[in-house]
Queue: 2 jobs
Job 1
Amino acid sequence: MTRGKVVAADDPGVRAAALRAELGRLNDAYHTRDEPLASDAYYDALFRELQAIEAADPALQAPDSPTLRIGGAPRSDLPAVRHDVPMLSLGNAFDDAGIVAFDRRVADGLGSPGPVSYAAELKFDGLAVTLRYEDGLLVQAATRGDGSVGEDVTPNARTIATIPLRLSTDKPPKLLDVRGEVLMCHADFDAINARQRAAGVREFVNPRNAAAGSLRQLDARITAIRPLHFFAYGLGSFDAGPSGAVVPETHSGLLDWFRALGVPVSEHRTVVAGSEGLLAFYRQIGELRATLPYDIDGVVYKVDDFAAQRRLGFVARAPRFAIAHKFPAEEATTTIENIVVQVGRTGAITPVARLSPVFVGGVTVTSATLHNEDEIHRKDIRIGDTVIVRRAGDVIPEVMRVLVERRPDGAAEYSLPMRCPVCDSAIVREEDEAVARCSGGLVCAAQRRQSLLHFAQRRALDIEGLGEKIVDQLVARDLVRSPADLFALDQDTVAGLDRMAGKSAANLIEAIANARQTTFARFLFGLGIRHVGEEVARVLAREFGSLDALLAADWTALMERKRVLQKENASRRTRDETVRAIPLDGIGDEIVQALAQFLGEPHNRQAITRMREVGIVWPENDGTIGLIDEPDSTPASPAGVLSGKTLVLTGSLPDLTRDAAKAIIEGAGGKVSASVSRKTDFVVAGEDPGSKADKAVVLGVPVIDQDALLRLIGQA
Ligand code: IVH
């Protein structure tokens, strides 16, 4: 953990003073300027350390310590609002043991004979607000502020679409304070930051700060154009007045009531029993987290029964009856030790930050992508900088921002190297491209390595056992320069590699030999041409039908014809005439340019010729509808026995690869879909069919095997 400016002192008094100063500084930036200087995890660590020092020696408990306060001081330019019931915070637990201990404390405190009933809900990562309804009308909204005094944001809250201006009931209570969280969804956050960027103004660090910055505006018209949401999670003051309204007896009942009144409440909540129930909820939400459209930083458990809550009461800053169970922080503070570049298959240069190891998102992270040079300059990232890194779900760790005030003296602006660190070829960046590239092509070992891995992957030539470790050795020992060389390898050579005992060498040689039989589309995809993914490769295979036709293509003429036909069709359509099929439909200029460039390189053509020579084969005219060869015919959709039928493939078929089965079905006019629905005509099931076959049975869709499929189309 980076300690920032906090002095490491042996004397606890000195250390406590330093911690107080640093926490004060961070608090101020966070609460009064919506501009955090450090990650929550860093703040929490300092806060807990200070708490521990003060607890160990009460003489060190300063009267102005941040541990005695609940939040930040209110910002002065919005009117102040005093909360008549203070807005408290929650104690935290970070692991199962902390929750088991919480549950035990609660059960002991209540003298409960059985498991305690808890309301479990999300811990929204936004800002706390309280909404005051008098006689059913929204009369005031206030932020939490320091817990006792917050800011009046009434006009701003009125612009939030989901906050009701009037409660939906005929008999509203005289007074009802609804407490909850205001937050911003990821998509809206991204859109707002894109706008900020375009306008050349400072971007928001995360959705929570964007929500806070948007709500705490003096001019509510600004809030109005920032989409915010609200979820209720608690009650403040209440006075039924003559309405006769009664507050439910449980927290879960309270939230149901809020919902009935038209106040938004999250659907992700439940009532569970004991610590086992709590931990199961935690895991369930942990899995759901990445799919939620907004940030949560944990879950919250509250004793469900209000009478029991009252008996348990409060400790200094927080209730005894509730606790927040935090997820591992997704953001953390660390330093950039170095910036290196990685070279991709197409030569793309990606700068990567090497980080001081830091625990974030549940794992220790040592590097983070910096995307490209512009991104580095936009964020002004330099070697030696202290930065906030983020790792959410399985996403590649990313450097979010620099803590500029912690920049060491003399840290220089970063620029990409001029030459490739792997092959020393020039690094070039086209004018309107964000990405710089190594110009070395297959001369560059890094690009060779990546192209071999791409060629061998399951979705391309599918060479089982040809993984990174083997490819690295083949490239390093210069045994393989281009994919064709793989087919010249002999068993002795392979057996000489590390981690290649006799049997695995034989297996690999066999896998390579088997890979010779493929499909045209897989072969094209395997070449690793920029922008040519599987789908584009399939279109190319279908339209050209043969490698010779593809190699002979006049790309300029094809694109020209495409444009002409597109225009013609547009006018024909209106006169209800036959529409002519357009060549390379769905293939844009960018792809065509990449194809023309790749196939225009003599060394690429040579590599392709060599692959043919080593015996890579595929069924000729595989999946073709002959469009390119017969330019003026009007290819109807291939009529056949499966015309208009939709089939789903599942499990592995005895003699057909998935691509081959797909080609056969499409050849007979059918369509292959990925998922089973009532509209599916047949499910073709092989070995280990999985849930698609089950679903077919449930929906009454016929399930057939490979033989039945072939009989159907008369190929048995
Ligand atoms: S209850 C007396 N419930 O977390 C308990 N708080 O550290 C008061 N928060 O300031 C809070 N989701 O901003 C509660 N479901 C939830 C919450 C929640 C988010 C925030 C809230 C509060 C902080 C407590």
Job 2
Amino acid sequence: MNIILMGPPGAGKGTQAARLVEKYGLVQISTGDLFRKALREQTPLGVTAQGFMQKGLLVPDEVTIQMVKEYISENTFENGFILDGFPRSIQQADELVNMAEELNFTIDAVINLDIPTDKLIARLSGRRTCKQCGSTFHIVYNPPKTEGICDNCGGELYQREDESEEAVQVRLNTYDEQTKPLIDYYTVKGQLINVDGDQSMDDVFKDIEKCLEEK
Ligand code: ADP
Ligand code: ADP
Ligand code: ZN
């Protein structure tokens, strides 16, 4: 089972993907995480992505598509994968169709986490991310047991550089302009499943499970 997890920045994609990984043994493919790793390691990909990420803009489609294609072709997925944060533009979605044909996989569900924009700022400004394993917490909604320390691996928690108020605003605009049209795109194809993302993490997960079990 291969899934696309969509939604605006802060909707809870990473949070829900982690639960899907645990329950169904899927592999999470987070383009944001892949870019951040490349950036830390200062690979050519990371250097290219850096400026776009800091500003809250999308990394150019060709670069992103190439990265995802390489990742999918170089790894094996016994139980399937979750695309978390990809596609984020119509061009990326079109290219994913070509990629699926070429690499011989299917997309079995497109889940859209639906949440009002005014809730996102609070989610993003309180998000803390583990330097070591990438797990996310929230200072109010999902605090770690010890402040500043990851529950899962003991790593240090930090606030992402693109989480400043200004960058967040740009990311939300980028979402509206380039990513939101994918809701219509997948609705027309009859693939979109809307899940109310404005509920507790447990309730969102229950709804996702229900949708997948009906598949
Ligand atoms: P995304 O990957 O879509 O950007 P995250 O999963 O990182 O979103 O979640 C953004 C922030 O909101 C994190 O700090 C996370 O702990 C918190 N969060 C996620 N889901 C919920 C929820 N259902 N209710 C409250 N806070 C949540
Ligand atoms: P969030 O969890 O807030 O939705 P991500 O961690 O997914 O954010 O992405 C962080 C940044 O990485 C984005 O602002 C963008 O610069 C880049 N990025 C991630 N995914 C893509 C993509 N599919 N296309 C282009 N840029 C991307
Ligand atoms: Zn950790």
